[in-house]
């Protein structure tokens, strides 16, 4: 199993991964509209060269924003390795923080990131309603039957030592 940059994998394979897991490669959040297949990122592949984990990010000034993170095999540390790869790259590029946005229903993401030193720094009430105006396919109800309404921004300060 290996971690590669997203550019080292055929784009069609990346597009297929996003289509399978998100419906498309387009991500609509309050910081922008992103085509995840065009972003920087890292891929975790198995021995058969199948993508089993993928993270994308965007750097703006001194902050690196994680746009998407997926792991097909939960509980094996794949997501953690991908986030660490982004954090290392962010440091190399002079970033002082890594941030991300998730939705209020995504309790798994909240646990995952907080265990890794991320703090909740902002709640964006009804932000998902605005995103639905552009991308109506965003579901109304999410994990555990929770209505998807708000975006939550988490951030981790990077140790520059």
Compile the SSE list and pairings.
Elements: E1 2-5, H1 11-22, E2 26-29, E3 32-35, E4 40-45, E5 51-60, E6 63-71, H2 78-92, E7 97-103, H3 107-115, E8 119-124, H4 127-134, E9 151-157
Parallel strand pairs: 6-7
Antiparallel strand pairs: 1-4, 2-3, 4-5, 5-6, 7-9, 8-9
Explain this structure:
The chain is α+β, with helices and mostly antiparallel strands and 161 residues long. It has a single domain, classed as 3-Layer(aba) Sandwich (Aminopeptidase), CATH 3.40.630.30. 27% of the residues lie in helices and 35% in strands. The strands form 2 sheets. It has a 7-stranded mixed sheet, with helices on both faces. The protein has a two-stranded antiparallel ribbon with strand order 2-3. The longest helix is centred in the middle third of the chain and has 15 residues, at 78-92. It is globular and about 40 Å long.
Descriptive labels:
161 residues, seven-stranded mixed sheet, two-stranded antiparallel ribbon
Provide a compact summary of the structure:
By secondary structure, the chain is an alpha+beta fold. The protein has helices spanning 11-22, 78-92, 107-115, 127-134, and strands at 2-5, 26-29, 32-35, 40-45, 51-60, 63-71, 97-103, 119-124, 151-157.
């Amino acid at each position: 199993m290996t971690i590669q940059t997203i550019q080292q994998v055929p784009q069609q394979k990346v597009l297929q991964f996003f289509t399978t897991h998100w419906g498309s490669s387009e991500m609509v959040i309050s910081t922008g509209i992103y085509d995840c297949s065009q972003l920087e990122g890292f891929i975790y592949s198995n021995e058969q060269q199948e993508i089993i984990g993928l993270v994308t990010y965007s750097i703006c000034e001194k902050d690196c924003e994680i746009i998407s993170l997926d792991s097909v095999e939960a509980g094996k540390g794949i997501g953690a390795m991908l986030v660490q790869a982004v954090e290392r790259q962010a440091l190399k590029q002079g970033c002082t923080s890594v941030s991300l946005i998730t939705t209020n229903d995504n309790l798994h993401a909240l646990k995952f990131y907080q265990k890794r030193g991320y703090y909740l720094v902002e709640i964006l009430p009804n932000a998902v309603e605005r995103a639905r105006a552009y991308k109506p396919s965003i579901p109304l109800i999410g994990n555990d039957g929770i209505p998807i309404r708000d975006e939550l921004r988490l951030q981790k300060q990077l140790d520059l030592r």
